[in-house]
Amino acid sequence: MPGSTTSSGRRATRGREAGDKGPVWDWAAGHGPVTGAVSAATGAFAVATTGAATSMPPSWALAVGAAGAIGHTAAGLRLRNAGRTLAARAASWLVGAGWTTWAITHGPLTWAALGSLAAIAVGIGTAAHSTALYEEAREDEALSAAERQVARELSAERRAIAAEWVERIQRVCGISVRVLAVDMWPAGTGFTLDAELPAGGATYQQIRKESPRLSADARLPHGCAAIAHPGIHQGRVLVDVTTANVLEEERAYPTDYGPLSLHTGVPWGYRSNAEEIRTYLREQCALVVGPTGSGKTNMVHVILAGLARTTDVLTWVIDLNAGSAGLPWVLPALSHPSGSVRPGIDWLASTHSEALRMLDTALRIARHRKTAYQDLLARENTDLLPVSPSIPQIMLVVDEGAEILASTDKSMRLLADRLLEVIRIARAMGVRTILTALGATGSVLGNLMIRREAKVRVALTGGETEGMDLSKLFPDSRGLRVEHAPYKGSGFLATPESPAAPFKCWRILPNQIRNIVAATSARHPVLDPISAHAAGTAYAERWNAERIAWMHSSTPLTPTSAHKPPADAGPIRDGLNLSALRDRPDSEADDLARKLMREIDDHFGTTAEPTRPSRADRPPHEGLNLSALRDSPAHTPAPEATDSEQSRDKGPDWLAEALDAIESAGPIGMKPSAIAELVGKDRKTVRTALQAAVDRGELTYRENGPHSVYIHPDHT
Predict the structure, then answer these.
(1) How many domains, in total, are found in the chain?
(2) pTM of whole model > 0.85?
């Protein structure tokens, strides 16, 4: 019937798009203008023919048409159709019913009846097409009106923000900008202003350096800031305004341990707008700076977690501090009962010799890849080795590696030379480094190779201002202040893709590390055969029992552990196992020798043993300065010395043990931290006592930055 011509042309379009091999008949779709008109005409003709043949009363067709017009009008009113649509549909029903009534009366098989039916069909189709277009236009206009209303509401808020900040930048910075857009952050933690700088040479740095004043003028919460960044060109500026401090809260490392790729980036944390940060390290090295207590160790674990999730990276870790950075990623695999879990890192070096072996292996791999993969480079038409799961990249993570590069110690210089050579020659062949440092100081950043290659830079502040010269680490970024990221695990991060800005690292716990090791075990790549051949046995035997025996030691060995006294030897003394402290019972041979010597003295009158010279008569530093011998009369202070002088010369009770330990360490000496751990005192107390010993000439202090040590004078 005519009422079936109300379908939208959109369904037909979707039907055509559904198939790529030809038209698809959609039985659920309604009629279009053409099919609806044809259906109405053929239906009217069938009713008229049947009615004429059966002598059906003509008024019945007219009654049905009137009922259809009334019903369709009611349905249209409920759907809020336009008046012209309601009129067209009602007219289609009434005209069709009128022709059917006339045809039943005079016969439908005449040329007049057929011609008039064809004309009515064309008219119905035209009217249906017109009304369908009109209804679609009304629908689009209604949607557009709603969107414009929302835009007007948002635009009003954004216009207010834009006007406020235009006036603020003019007042604080003396620059008249024109805000082109205000982008509200999805997390609701702030917004970004896209502004055009005025003519006359104004730059975004002029706004960036006034970040503290802008933040104070806007009354932003503590930890929030307004920081300017370069725009789409040098005449534009982006101003990120943080209104909610997401860096204050601690967020756990995401529990999604899905696969990653070096080419898609490795997540390291999140910005102040709560967006995840990804670093791209195919060609870049990285430098992570953070003082003690800033969360640097936690970030190292976050970095290792991201690398463990990748399918095209092998991670090698150097940590000369007993391998503490890499052990949590190795021990879960070594202690797994089935032995089928692979470590989260591919190699761990905790000693100078193992680190040297690792760096030499990396250099051999890089050099061999340069020649062995020439055909692949030519085929791929590139000068960068195509890193993939079959040819993985090697990431060297060196804890306190920047201090190794800045050290003047001979053994450390050997490591530093190897490390610098890796940084210098191995970029194209897929060997990159991530170094950590304790502070952004000139001694750390003085090496040109570090500044040039480490384009991914992180400064974890933790609120610490000493040794955190952000201008050295981010020379092109002014206006950065520690107060913008004062929380543990927070700081500033800069990549080649984005300038330095506040960020925070996730908190990762040991149970998550174990879960990541288990979840990513089957995902780790293996070293390609060409590189494995160049690596040789140094790499193939990295997990041999003798080379990882130190990882299984639950308690560290002490100097006296190899000479444990018997159970009946009396109380055990702390410190060195000195013969002067051993109360050994006399044996029969000792008694016999003593009697023989006494008889010789009685019969031959031999001279007595020479007396031991006093401390004042002996040359300085003669023999070992043993505390066990200091209780003899020759070592007691002079009677006229006062109690205060005795206390000053002797020092604390634990000083004797510390002096013995420093003496036994030889020319290597001991760090203040190691001495503090040995005697169970805080570093400040230990430093004060040791400095007093240096002033008395009992010790020598060798200044070497973080590797400074105390040495006994016998070994200087």
Answers:
(1) 4
(2) no
